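Backbone-to-sequence.
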């Protein structure tokens, strides 16, 4: 108890001030070593600035007042690098105590497979996010019905994955941002989508709040134009692949489940304690694939601190 009392919560500015000065000390020590002991192997430094940015990013995702840092006195008595490690561990410990948020996202529907996904959402009472291609909904009566099932299901939220899916010629599509944006607007209108939430075909791009992360620059101008028009764009942290026709997974349920656990554990997702999984509707055309999806949901549900969320609520903070 007394030990706990020794730990205090102090303001982020004080913390960052201490942290920056730690970095300066580390930097000057390295220089001194290089001059005074040239024969010695220079000490390999961690990428200090990146670490700092990384931790700041993690902190940014939290209600900072919930984090308990070691008292200033105890930070001063230990080595700067050790202090940094302690701080990171302290942040991770706090994060590990909190709820984790999982976003199961399905692209390219409605397609064969969408109806089964819709049924699994209901059977498992699990929220799913569907990024839809409007052209597919107009391809047949069956697919139109499948889209309507999605839109009526309170456990499924429907978002924009463009009208044409770029006709799968992504580079050409994104070379004309105005036309590309018009394609997303056409999708929104055709499906009557209520939320301005997009996933860009063929691109893992994130653009919302102060986040802008682009995987391939050919989509960046379109992303910025969508952003200027009030859209939020979401990519993914991890993709699960299954061969649609055979139902054979590229990654087994256990592999993808372990990946999700590992990424949540080592904070390698875009936002800590939030993980976005990408799947495609046509992966679940047959029983085999559908059983795998049910199996993954069951595995994840074993964790009482895991919660399934709609991407419209991304990211969850504390
Ligand atoms: Zn797609």
């Amino acid at each position: 108890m007394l030990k706990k009392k020794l730990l205090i919560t102090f303001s982020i500015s004080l913390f960052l001030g201490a942290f920056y000065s730690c970095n300066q000390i580390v930097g000057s020590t390295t220089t001194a070593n290089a001059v005074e002991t040239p024969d010695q192997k220079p000490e390999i430094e961690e990428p200090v600035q990146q670490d700092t940015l990384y931790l700041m990013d993690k902190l940014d995702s939290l209600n900072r007042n919930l984090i308990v840092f070691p008292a200033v006195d105890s930070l001063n008595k230990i080595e700067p690098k050790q202090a940094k490690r302690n701080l990171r561990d302290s942040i991770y410990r706090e994060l590990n105590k909190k709820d984790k948020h999982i976003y199961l996202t399905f692209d390219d529907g409605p397609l064969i497979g969408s109806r089964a996904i819709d049924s699994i959402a209901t059977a498992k009472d699990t929220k799913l996010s569907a990024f839809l291609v409007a052209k597919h909904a107009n391809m047949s009566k069956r697919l139109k019905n499948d889209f309507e099932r999605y839109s009526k299901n309170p456990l499924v939220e429907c978002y924009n994955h463009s009208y044409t899916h770029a006709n799968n010629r992504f580079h050409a599509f994104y070379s004309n941002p105005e036309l590309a944006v018009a394609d997303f607007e056409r999708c929104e209108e055709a499906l009557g989508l209520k939320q301005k939430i997009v996933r860009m075909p063929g691109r893992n791009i994130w653009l919302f709040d102060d986040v802008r992360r682009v995987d391939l620059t050919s989509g960046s101008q379109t992303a910025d134009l969508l952003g200027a028009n009030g859209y939020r764009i979401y990519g993914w942290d991890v993709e699960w692949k299954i061969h649609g026709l055979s139902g054979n997974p590229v990654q087994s349920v256990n592999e993808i489940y372990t990946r999700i656990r590992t990424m949540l554990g080592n904070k390698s997702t875009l936002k800590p304690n939030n993980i976005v999984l990408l799947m495609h509707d046509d992966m679940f055309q047959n029983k085999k694939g559908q059983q795998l999806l049910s199996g993954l949901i069951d595995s994840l549900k074993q964790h009482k601190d895991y919660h399934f969320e709609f991407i419209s609520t991304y990211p969850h903070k504390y």
